[in-house]
Known about the structure:
By secondary structure, this protein is mainly alpha-helical. The chain has one domain (2-121). The protein has helices at residues 2-39, 45-78, 82-95, 101-114, 116-121. Helix 2 packs across helix 3 and helix 3 (82-95) packs antiparallel against helix 4. The two termini are 14 Å apart. The mean pLDDT is 95.
Amino acid sequence: MATHVKIIAVLFIIGGVLLLAGAFFTPLVLGALAAVVGASDAEGAAVGAAVLGFTGVAMSVVLGLLALPNLICGWGLLRFRRWARILGIVLAAIALTKFPIGTAFGVYALVILFKAETEALFS
């Protein structure tokens, strides 16, 4: 069971890193798009550029905040912390809504994290 818990931990960390990458690249892409829109002479271009810039920053913050629980859970699961198992169950249940890959991961994580053998690892 320890191997399965480590696999789940690594998958949580990979998911967190991907969310952090999205948090980094989203404002870059939307900022570049805002520059293109702002450079045009169309009416409302300045407003559109401002909205795109704000959206990029807001999405960056949201993606960064979504990455933190995944990274923290992965770290805790690798060290077999009791709170990480509970956080992993919560995050796996949330992942069930992300069809199809998140659903498969959520089912796998829930099956492993609810086993009595796994619970004994976290005692």
